[in-house]
Structure formats: C-alpha cells, structure tokens
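Attaching the record inline, Q. Sequence:
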Amino acid sequence: MADISYLEAWQMWLQGKPTIGNDMLGVPMLWWGRAGKILTFVAGAVVLIDLVGPEKLSRYGDRLVRLMTAQPVLRPVGAGFAAGTIASLLIIGVTEPMGNSQARAWLAVAGGGTAAFLVFIIGFALQHPNFASVARWVSVGLLLIGFHFDLLAS
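Structure, as predicted:
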C-alpha cells in the first residue's frame, strides 16, 4: 500500500484509477470512505429536528438540564455513566478478536464518562433558541465533507 497525499488521491480519482488499496495520511482509503458515509448519516439525522420541531427539542432540553442539575446530581450522571460503560463493554466484547486488552479496557472507562458528559452537554444545547438553525448549517457542512470523502474513496 502506497501512502498518497490528498492531491495525489484526487489526481488518481480524476484519472479513473481506484484509490482503494492506498493510504492517505497513514489511514487506508477504505476508512476514509467509511468515515464519509458516517458523516453523511449524521448530517441526515438532522432531519429529526424538522420532524420533531425545534420547540419540542427545546422543551426536552429544559427537562434534561433540570434532571441533570436536580438534587442529587449523582443519580442521572450515574445512569449516564452506567449506560456508557455498558455500551463500552459491549464494544469490548465485539472487538475481542482484535486483542490489545489494555486499550479496550480504557475504552470502557472513557466511554462511561463521555456518555454522562454528552447527556449534560446535549441538554444545554437543546435549550439554546438557535440550536435548530446551527444544527442545520453544521449538517450541511458534515454532508459536504462526508460526501467528499465517500466520493474520494470510491
């Protein structure tokens, strides 16, 4: 596998040569394409904002923040940490054949803390009156970037 630059990847694509089988910035082109598909999916998920409506999302954000800041705080944070840890343990179980158990153990710890933190941040973001507008613009950017890498890896 050759390590090609960004411009070399586009030159290959424009010449009709497959980029799959090469690395760009040390990452296989297959993974650049997969990352592009994931970003495109996340961008499409913003359609939920239009389906649910920004007002309902804002009310949900209010409830989520009240839950996270209520006494005692440990209950919702603990629930988020537990959910993240369970999800991380499932990931570890699925990645068992990969080996490297120390890295997978750190994934479980980091996943639990990250899940609790994200629940808190999402609550504050949903409360913001411009959340829907900002999310739409971010989704346009994600769609363009995702499509770009998916196309480049094709």
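The first strand starts at residue 3 and ends at 4. The mean pLDDT is 76.

More tomorrow.
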